[in-house]
Every structure is written in structure tokens, then in C-alpha cells.
Amino acid sequence: MSKTENAQPLLNQADIDKLFETRIVPKLHGLEQERQTVLKEKNRRWRNGGIGAATIAAVVLILCQTNGLPIWIPILVAVGAGLIVWIWADLATSDYQDHLRKAFMDAICKALGGLYYAHLTFDDPREAMAEFELQPYRDVHLIPSYHSAKLEDLLMGRYRDCDFTLVEATLTTKSTNGRGGSSTVTVFDGMLFQLQVPQPIRGKVLIARDYGKWINKLRDWWRDGVRVDIPHPEFEKRFAVYASSEALGLQIVTPAFVENFLALRKVFGTDKIRAAFIGSQFYVAAQRKSDFLEGFSASTPAADLKPLFEQIAHEVQLVHRIIDQLHQG
């Protein structure tokens, strides 16, 4: 990728301080009033729900003792009722968290310019794919097979003449055992990133994790193209490159790109990165241990929100740092 001259300046600490003072501070009083209201409602739900759950558990206990039923039945009922009460009480703060998230993201997106944000709650893969297309990631094995997709925190925009999309994704599948039981297994939990490249390529280039000589040989049979040797020991130790042709692989995965791609590990905060060039698009799938754009909680007083605002402002600029890194060299 070549450098462009119209890179928008990112937000430094002084910019974030000014943004918080001008866009968030005037809203703190209203946010604190709303927070106090939802906390009272949450406590009310805990109190009333707790009484109801205890009553139900007590009735079940008496019935079990009367009929000689196992003691684990009322214990199970108590645990289930307690879980329902916990979920019900926690939902009392969801609207406040959404309002806080919107206030922060509206301010940050407007300051950065050319940036759209949506907090998605899609659990159905068909609905999720209508907002963010997952199939290209499957076509080149950046993500595994899955039964259900949950997408959150969608960022879309344009930076340095490149259209981009970033979303947090959790993909799950169902696993069955020999006794007919089933369980849900998370097969991917991280970030999916899509970037339009200036010049489309003819063919495909895949950058996958290197699993070692013998395991790679077992995996080669289902990957399109040929394995391309990259003359960079550290890169070759961590990643394996596959391309429609060796010439295309070496054309795309240049020494400068290799250094920048290795640096992406620090940007994403993980070594579990896969990427692919397909036509005019560059796709990245990165598994992360920490969630993206989290921390919106009613437990934090409005007067203490600035550290969270700074955290969110830096996290939002993750996509910009990725693009900047790819433009280096």
C-alpha cells in the first residue's frame, strides 16, 4: 500500500480532554440523575425478585419434604429463580448504558469525522450477514464454520482514501456427545476488519498462523493456491502465506508489508491474526482476549466517567492505527 497525503489527524490527549469538556461535561448532570433512577429500579427488582424467588424455593422445599422428593430439587429451583432475578435486575440499567454509549460515540465519531458507529445485537446469522457480510471470511478460512453469529460494535468509515469496516464478532457452533446431549462452543471471539485497497489484485493471498511444518502439511490440502516462502525468519515462524501464485504472493507480501503486519500484533493486542487479499478488499480476523468498547456501567458515578471516555476514544481509533500501520514504509 502506498502513502496518501490526506490522512486525518487522530485525537491526542489534549484533543480528548477538550472533547470531554465540551461534549460530555454538559451532559453529566442529566446522566447522573438517570443513573440514580435506574439504580433505584435495579435495587427494587432485586428486593422484590429476591422475595419472590425465596418464596417459590420455600414452597418447593415444603412440597419435597412432604412427598419425600430429593433435596436437590428445591436447590435447583432456588438457583434458577436467582438467575432469573439477576437477569431481570440487570436489565434495569440497559437503557442508561445505551444512552451513555451513544453520548460517547457520537462525540468521538464527530470529532474523527467520516465514522459511523452502531451497537449491534444480532444473534441470527442471517440478520447479522445483512449488516456485515461474513461469507468472504469463510471462503478463505479466516473464520471457522459456525452455527450462530453475534455481532457488536460496528464501525464503518473512510480514512486515508480507504473505506473500512470493523466489527466485534462471536461465532459459536453446537457440539454433540455420544449420549445425545449438546453444548455450545465458541469457535471465534474477536475483531473482523475489512479495508478497501487502492489497487485490486487478480487472485487471492492468504496469511494464516503457522502451526509448524507437519501440521501445515496436513492443512495445505484444503487451502487454495500454493505455499509461498517469505524471506523473513520471524514472520515465517508465526505465519504462513498462501497465494494463487508464488509471484502474486511475493508481490503483495513485501518486506515492508511483513514488518507492518508483524506490528499489527501490538495494535490488535494478539498473535492470533489471519488476513487475506481478495480483489479490492483486505480482510483481517483477529482473536482478542479483551472485549471491544466495553465498560459502560451504571456502577460508575457520572463525575468519574473521564477515564472511561479516554479508554473508548483510544479504542475507537484502533481502525485508524491499523490503516496507518499498513501505510508505513
The biggest beta sheet is recorded as: 9 strands, antiparallel
Q: How big is the Rg?
A: 25 Å
The run of helices and strands is HHHHEHHEEEEHEHEHHEEHH
Low-confidence stretches: 1-7
Q: Which structural category do the helix and sheet elements fall into?
A: alpha+beta
Binned, the helix content reads 40-55%
Secondary structure: number of strands: 9
Give the overall form: flat
The total count of helices amounts to: 12
Average pLDDT for all residues: 82
Number of domains: 1
Strand composition percent: 15-25%
Distance between the termini: 9 Å
Q: Order of strands side by side in the largest beta sheet?
A: 1-2-3-4-9-8-5-7-6
What does this protein look like?
By secondary structure, this protein is an alpha+beta fold. The protein has one domain. It is 48% helix and 22% strand. The protein contains twelve helices and nine strands. It has a nine-stranded antiparallel sheet. The relative contact order is 0.14. The N terminus is likely disordered.
Features:
disordered N terminus, nine-stranded antiparallel β-sheet, 329 residues, flat, alpha+beta, 9 strands, 22% strand
Q: Quick recap of the structure?
A:
The chain has helices at residues 13-24, 28-67, 72-90, 94-112, 125-131, 135-139, 213-220, 233-238, 246-252, 255-268, 306-316, 318-327; strands at 115-118, 148-159, 162-176, 182-196, 204-209, 226-228, 239-243, 273-278, 281-287. By secondary structure, it is α+β, with helices and mostly antiparallel strands.
